Amino acid sequence: MAEEDVLHATVRWLPELGSEGPDDGSAGGEGVMTLPVFPLGGVCYLPFSSHVLNIFEPRYRSMYNDILMNGSRRFIVTMVDPASGRLAETGVIFYLDDLKEVSEQTGDAVKYVCSHSVIGRVEIERVLNPMAWFTRQTYIKARCRVLSEPSIVAAGATEAAEEAAPSAVEAEVRTAMSRVIELQAELNEAPRFTSAMKTALNVSRSDEDQAVWKMIGFWHALQERRLMLVQNRMQEDISRRVVDHFKSSGKPVQGQVRLDDLPADVRADLSRIQEGYRSQLEELAEAPYGEPFQLLLQARGHDERLALFLEMIQRESDRLGRRASLKKLFEMS
User: Which of 6, 70, 1 is nearest to 310 (CA)?
Assistant: First the structure.
């Protein structure tokens, strides 16, 4: 794929459920299998990560019973387009590592608490029972093709050396990441990568591109922490203003405070606080989730994935660079 195509890539979505004609069942071949599908909203999960899910819906209770009984312990997790409800074409395979029955402790509100490892990527070819998505009587199943990266170990010695040779985009990613780490330290950014990350940077080719996915995972975790930090700061500012109101009026804060019970000037202040954080939250809302990471997931190779990752890093570098410039201007004034 050409560089300009990579930088203007869009998420590949499946057709709307139920819009396809009858399945003739002819598709097949190496790496093709049928697996249950557990769509999980607008969240994109990454290979080689671990996740815990609480299971309460009857259809997914049934799904877990089935994958335990048949021994597969596997299912597809894929992103859902919030606008159209379509499923992303590329998903990941969750492998069930551990399951705890908690219905007694939760009054049957939650049936299972399940721990999973993400063990690979799949390309969904077709949802086989699309009407189940609408009836909710059972879980949906899909025919999918397992996606794999070229193995550098399986190649011959000469081919392996050529395959493992650093590419230009690998060098660009290392340079851009180092710049971000330096700017984070200069600005005392919280949260941020430690300086040790510069020496640990590894985006080289590896089996199933594990090194790159590990680095993307670090980036993903940092963006999640940033979003949580901004959300917490906004909530603290809102709580502080409400507490100040009750203190100045000589009234104790009792239980949950309803917005409608507050005077107009306090409500206006709370709106201003929310508005002050709005741009930050909008900027960060998609950062740890959503389409940018889905594009990485559906990338068809090492260099294409790194080109997309580089674009993400450069946007963050530009943001930090603007902050650093403003900081210098204030220091000079």
Answer: 6
Contact indicator for 177, 184 with CB cutoff of 8 Å: no
E-assigned strands of the chain?
A: 32-37, 50-55, 74-77, 90-101, 112-127, 140-147
Paired residues of 118 in beta bridges: 94
- The candidate with the shortest Cα–Cα distance to 77, out of 95, 59, 57, 61, is 95
DSSP string, 124-166: EEEES-THHHHH-SS-EEEEEEEE-PPPTTTS-HHHHHHHHSP
Residue given tokens 């299972």 in the structure block: 112
pLDDT at residue 18 in the model: 85
pLDDT given for residue 161 in this prediction: 46
132-156, pLDDT tens digit by residue? 999 999 999 999 999 987 766 555 5
If you average pLDDT over every residue of the chain, what do you get? 88
Return the amino acid letter for 212: V
